[in-house]
Amino acid sequence: MEEQAEQAESESKAEQREKLKATLVSSPEGRLLLAGAGLAFIYSLWLGVRVLLSPDESQVLVGMTATQIMFGRAAGMAFGYSLGLGQKMVIPICMILETIMVLVLFPLFVFSWRHLLIIKGLKKIFERMHRAAESRKGLVHRYGIIGLFIFVWFPFWMTGPVIGCVIGFLLGLKVRVNIPVVLGGTYAAIFGWVFFLRHFHDHVASYSSYAAMALMGLLVIIIILGHFLHRTLRENREKE
Q: Is the pLDDT at 78 greater than 80, yes or no?
């Protein structure tokens, strides 16, 4: 009996793997994931080349990349500006990283939702994303595509592009509509932060360049602390 159960489980997993392979090629989410993986590889390759050619600058680039992935676009951009990166470097990096996160995490969420691919390390993250999307779905649904665009653009906690994609998915938007709207809102948000951060930096730098760096660094710390505070409050609500 045990052998039969193990054999049935093995066959079920084999069928699931074959279905996943077919889905990667045939479904729009699968093609998004492949595109995201390709873009992530190219970005990692570029970052590796920068490490070889310009070790000092590459440390800032790696730090900005890690900060943005962990704490969001505002923290990543402020980190880059505080350590001397210009707009020609900060804006493209921020746009590429946000795009990679959408193209990778959104398809993985959909595959998890459909029980095609469940990654244990991401399961809790996807569950939180789903709860966050469900709690905000009604507001976005009221205003349609414009509401989704504004939701992604608005600079508040848990209004990022991946959550926006999940809301679009739960509302039944097709990928060809969902992704462009979300990325459009994301890029608009990036340029909004560029305007704010550069204006803030230039205004403070008129008094002292050191003060500008210190305040930009302080802004990064505030955003990170806000992130941890928001996560702690959310976890406490979930326990209750």
A: yes
